[in-house]
Every structure is written in structure tokens, then in C-alpha cells.
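Fold these two proteins, one after the other.
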Amino acid sequence: MAALDTTRTTTGSFGLVGRIGVTFASVVNAVVEWNDARVTRNVLNGLTDRELDDIGMCRGDIDLVAEGRL
């Protein structure tokens, strides 16, 4: 799983360069989140119904888990 630190605040870069940096960080963060959800979805879809039941899930839960809503 990839991690991106988005808790840092810029110190003084409020102009065009600061806005470009914030936009770039937002785009990178969105791509990282999309990829994590895609990988999670693929792994869970690869499990059998029995294996999903063993971890307390059903096929209908996969999208919720991948999107972090469950």
C-alpha cells in the first residue's frame, strides 16, 4: 500500500507555484487512492465465496471495502 503525506502545510508558497504544488499533490493522492482501491478489489475478487465468508464478507461488500466505506 502506498502512502502519501498530505498533512504538511506550505510555508509562504501561496502564489502560482504553491497552487500548482497543491494541485499536483491532489492529483497524485487521487491516483494513489484509485490504485489502492483497484488492487484491493482485484485481490478480494480473486477469493472464493468460502474464503470471503471466512473473513465475514460477501461479494456485495467488495466495492464498499475497496472504497473504504465499510
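Now the second one:
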Amino acid sequence: MTSNNNPVIRSLLETDLYKFTMWQALFNSAYNDNETEYRFVCRRPPSMPLAALKDEVVREVEHLCSLTFQEDELDYLRSLRYMKSSFVDFLSIFRLQRRFIRIEGNGDALEIVARGPQVHIMFFEIFVLAIVGELHARRWPQEEALAEGRRRLAEKIAQLKDFAPEAAAAQDLAPFVFFDFGTRRRFSRAWHEEVVETLMAEVPQFFKGTSNVYLAKKHGLTPMGTMAHEYLQTFQAVRDVPLRYFQKAALDAWNDTYRGDLGIALTDVVGMDAFLRDFDLRDAKLFDGLRHDSGDPVEWGEKALAHYAKLRIDARTKRLVFSDGLTVQKSISLWRHFAGRAQTGFGIGTHLTNDFGPSYPALEIVMKLVRCNDRPVAKLSDSPGKTICDDETFLAYLRSVFNKPA
């Protein structure tokens, strides 16, 4: 375990791949001048007041703003075939700016707001979440927590090894693969790496990658990720794009940038039904698959398969990626349901990197885009409690445009 005096973030690669891929798509688009606001939210009351962390968070963010990309990091990004030289050249001179982020205590709550050019401030998100999460976790008795975390990780590995004969029997038809999606809510930097190293050693036949670019580079893993909600939400508030067509505009801009790479589309910004109305034959052929992040996963998957069938596309050539609150057992259950009907993949987050039992609860924190170009944006989630918007009038209008009930 690292010393509490060590900075939480020590490399600008210590973030999720989709921060780079969304950043590049916007950087290379006609919408690279967006002015935006991102806001930190704790969805569930924490066990201790987060405002107590304010001074430490300030120090960590100031350290973060001193970091730059190193030459070997830039070389690694250039080695990813979908990263463009012009974007990596921009990263070579990039540094996060402290003036764009405000950190304050508000009663017991911690208030963090980033405002400024989107192609600058969108990069704060994962770092801020990892900083707050680790500073919070440092308040727990470390050795006791880590002992419980290791015990729980061993149980997960035992589950996977028990499942291995069943998976092996179906390997040719429907391989079971999962990825680490746990950077944003991890217990600590050191624990995150221990989890990844343990999974690589114990279940390499199943563990195939990580969203964390630093760990992917260090351990020779595949960096995983495409887009998040903020990317599609941005197109709710850009010039020349009618609200009704924001999803189409976002998908078109993605295809213009990646030309067939990174082909997993996120479906739940305004709900699966509204997404599928926009996901036409062209998109269904161009994109390799879809990612689930809210609502009932079985119902979602069945809708995806029915949509492919309607378009006369063999769903076995497409991938369904599940990433909403997954556990190992839930992932196995979903694999059993969809095996042989589509390719699958499972992005497991908090259950891998911050599962320490009820005595050490993980924070339920997000940092979301709430305004773009002085206009509100929103996510109409298929899961209760995940809808995010600070403007009820816009929320009602968005629901009416996409015929989604409150």
C-alpha cells in the first residue's frame, strides 16, 4: 500500500481510454470550441462528510495540474492505430489548468465544478473521481480493509475457476471475456494495480483488458473503451444540430473520426427505445456492437437482438457489452442467457476495484456534463436515480421530443 503522502495521480495516462477517444473525436470535429460545465455529484450519502476532504482534494488537483505527458506515454498513444498524430501532438503541449476547476465545501458536501473549453476540462473527470475516492478510502483502517478486499477477490477468482469448464466447452461458440472498468471508483491506485495483476495471473483466459490506459501500457493489456454519455449529450447543445437528431449527429461524427475502429455505441442517453429508433441499418452495419449501462440488461439485450433481426443482420457478428453494476456472478448469468446468440463482453467496475464489504462502502460518485454552450444537457436513464439534469424545463422538453415518460 502506498504512503498517504504520495499523490493519487502520477501520470496523465491514469484515466479511462474513452476520455481520450471522446476527446479526440471532439477535437477533430467542427464542435471543438464548445464551452461546458461538469459537476461532481455524490449519489448516495457517504459514511463521512466529503467536505472534510476539501483541502486534500485541492492539493491533489494542483499536483494533477502540474503533470504533462511524457515521451514514452505519447509514443504509446501513437502506437494505438486509432489515435491521430495531430491529436497526440496537441497532447504533447497539454496541461490541465487549475483556473478551470472550483473546489469548495458546502456544509457536509464537497462541491466540485469545472467550467471552460470542453476540449480542456473534459479530462478532469476520471482524475477527480479517483482522487476523491482514494482520499475517502484512506480514512479507513488500511490493513483491515485490504485483508477483506483480498478475501473477496479470492472468492471471485474461485467463482471464475469453477465456471472455467463450462466456459471452455462453449469457447468456440461464445467465449466469455471480461474487462476492468474500475478506475473511477477504485479504492486506491495500488489496490487497482494489485487487482489487475492478480486477474492476469489467475484467470488470463477470461481477463482481457482494462479501461485504465496507464495499466494497459504497463502490463501489456488491451486498453478498452469507446464513448460515454458526455459525448452524445454534447450534441444536444451544438450548433446546427436539431435536438431530435443529436444521437445521429454524434454517431456520424464518431464514424467520421474512427472509420470503423472503436465500434461499440452507448445506447442509454435517452433510453434504449429512443436509441434504436435512430440506430438504422447503416449504423447497425458500421458499429461492431452496443454497450448497456442502465435498465434491465436482459430486456436490453433482447431488444438489441430483435433490432438486429429486424434489420436482417446476424447478431452473432455483433457484440453486446454489459457495464452496469456488474458482479462476476451477474456477468456469468448474462453470458449464459446470450451465449451463442451474440458476442458478449463484460466491463466490471466497482465490484473489482472497490469491494471491501459493508464496513468499507464505496462512494457512489460521478462527475457529469450538465451544460454545453450555455444550454442544459441531460441523460434520460433507463434506471431510476441515474437521470441527470439541472434544468427541469429542458428535461421535460427532451422527454417530449423522444416520447419518454417521466
